[in-house]
Structure to design on (174 residues):
C-alpha cells in the first residue's frame, strides 16, 4: 500500500526545537520551585530544633528549682546533639550547631563576628536551684547555611531565654 503525500505536507518524525525548549523551560521552572520548598523545610526544621532546645531549657530550669539541685544541659557540637537527665536529643538530619560567616553576635548586642556555635562555658547550660541560668548563646543552622537561629540567655538577676532568627539582622521570635 502506498500513501500519497501532498506536496505541501511534511511528515513529522519528532519534536521541533521550539517544543523541546518549552518542555525544558517548564521542567527547569518546576525544579527551581521545588528547591525553594526544600530550603523552606530546612528553615522549619532548624526553627523546630530551636524550639525543642528552648523547651528543654525551660524544663531543666524548673527541674532545678523543684529538686533544689543544679542541673545541666551538655551540648555536643561535634555530634549535633545535647544531653540532659540521662537523655540524649539528636538534632534533625541536615541541622547543626554552627554559625554563618560574617554574622555578628550575640543577638541582643551584635558587636563581634561569631566564630563558634556556642558561647556557654564548656558547652554546658547550667541551671541553679534559684532559677538562674548561665549566660551565653547557642546557634543552630542548616548544613547549607540558608538560615541561622539563636537561643540566648543574658546576664541578669533574673534569667530568661530569648529566641532569635537572623535575616540580615537579628529578629527576636515570640
Amino acid at each position: 500500500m502506498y500513501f500519497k503525500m501532498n506536496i505541501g505536507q511534511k511528515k513529522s518524525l519528532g519534536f521541533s526545537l521550539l517544543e523541546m525548549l518549552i518542555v525544558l523551560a517548564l521542567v527547569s521552572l518546576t525544579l527551581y520551585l521545588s528547591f525553594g520548598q526544600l530550603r523552606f523545610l530546612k528553615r522549619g526544621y532548624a526553627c523546630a530544633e530551636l524550639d525543642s532546645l528552648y523547651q528543654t531549657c525551660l524544663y531543666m530550669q524548673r527541674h532545678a528549682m523543684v529538686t533544689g539541685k543544679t542541673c545541666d544541659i551538655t551540648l555536643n557540637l561535634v555530634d549535633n546533639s545535647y544531653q540532659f537527665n540521662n537523655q540524649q536529643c539528636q538534632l534533625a538530619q541536615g541541622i547543626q550547631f554552627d554559625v554563618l560567616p560574617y554574622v555578628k553576635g550575640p543577638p541582643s548586642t551584635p558587636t563581634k563576628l561569631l566564630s563558634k556555635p556556642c558561647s556557654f562555658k564548656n558547652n554546658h547550660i547550667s541551671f541553679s536551684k534559684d532559677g538562674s541560668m548561665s549566660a551565653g548563646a547557642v546557634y543552630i543552622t542548616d548544613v547549607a547555611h540558608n538560615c541561622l537561629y539563636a537561643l540566648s540567655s543574658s546576664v541578669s538577676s533574673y534569667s530568661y531565654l530569648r529566641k532569635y532568627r537572623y535575616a540580615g539582622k537579628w529578629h527576636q521570635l515570640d
Remarks:
- Helices lie at 17-67.
- DSSP finds one helix and eleven strands in the chain.
- The longest strand covers residues 136-142.
- The CA atoms of residues 14 and 20 lie 10 Å apart.
